[in-house]
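Q: I'm building a small set of examples for a reading group on sequence design. Run inverse folding on the following structure and report the sequence directly after it, with nothing in between.
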């Protein structure tokens, strides 16, 4: 069972201070508010979120006991590379879930984690400047044990869980630990050398490269071909011969065939 404690996970730093709440508005909101006085690597997990938040101001719905709501506090991240934190978290999560389940997981730019065409994980990274100090909160929501009926009931046509997509039954604790282990390993490289050494692995897992995409920015939608993803987390899209850089904070993408 997940509960507050230290040394719960087989990691050196991430999650060694772990705060567990039965219910929170949002694990990201909690760490954004309290991160200034907490140690690097502090991890907050909630059994349920009442105001879970997603990318681009969207909501992230909550289901007790079947999904993981986890946020990790990262300090001392050099500011110039902080914009690729979402890509880093996406890659760490994909690697973790592949090891845990033995199945293939992919990344839909910038950091949705999908399996067999369904979104299994959503990631929201946020930064906070607190006096002289800045810190980052990486929020990871993983659908673990929901069944197909859950997604149908909630109108989440593109959603799936580890259970529905891989038929593997995993505990929330095992999923949390596998992500923390992988994130810790990649973070060591990232802090030293930035995202560049990790970019080839990200690209190998990214479903969008070389495919048609609809780029949705506010009310406008443009069609193009994703030609590349850069080390700063942006995507290069070719719109009828003109290549434009699309930043993750501004736009979402959809393919032409379902969610991917
Ligand atoms: C998205 O796909 O839009 C991102 C969803 C991120 C959800 C996670 S759940 C844990 C953390 N707390 C939040 O309020 N959001 C993130």
């Amino acid at each position: 069972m997940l509960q507050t404690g230290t040394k719960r996970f087989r990691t050196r730093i991430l999650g060694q201070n772990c705060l567990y709440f039965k219910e929170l508005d949002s694990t990201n909101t909690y760490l954004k508010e309290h991160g200034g006085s907490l140690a690097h690597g502090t991890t907050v997990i909630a059994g349920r979120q009442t105001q879970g938040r997603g990318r681009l101001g969207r909501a992230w719905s909550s289901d007790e006991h079947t999904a993981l709501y986890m946020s990790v506090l990262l300090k001392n991240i050099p500011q110039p590379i902080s914009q690729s934190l979402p890509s880093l978290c996406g890659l760490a999560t994909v690697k973790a879930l592949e090891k845990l389940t033995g199945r293939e997981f992919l990344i839909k730019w910038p950091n949705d984690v999908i399996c067999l065409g369904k979104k299994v994980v959503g990631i929201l990274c946020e930064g906070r400047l607190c006096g002289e100090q800045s810190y980052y909160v990486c929020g990871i929501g993983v659908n673990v044990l929901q069944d197909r009926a859950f997604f149908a009931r909630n109108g989440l046509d593109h959603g799936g869980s580890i259970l529905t997509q891989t038929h593997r039954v995993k505990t929330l604790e095992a999923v949390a630990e596998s992500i923390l282990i992988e994130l810790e390993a990649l973070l060591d490289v990232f802090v030293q050398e930035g995202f560049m050494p990790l970019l080839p692995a990200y690209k190998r897992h990214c479903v969008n490269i070389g495919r048609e995409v609809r780029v949705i920015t506010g009310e406008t939608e443009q069609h193009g071909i994703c030609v590349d993803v850069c080390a700063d987390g942006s995507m290069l899209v070719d719109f009828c011969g003109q290549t434009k850089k699309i930043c993750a904070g501004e736009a979402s993408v959809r393919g032409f065939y379902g969610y991917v």
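The domain at 18-204 is CATH 3.30.930.10 (BirA Bifunctional Protein; domain 2).
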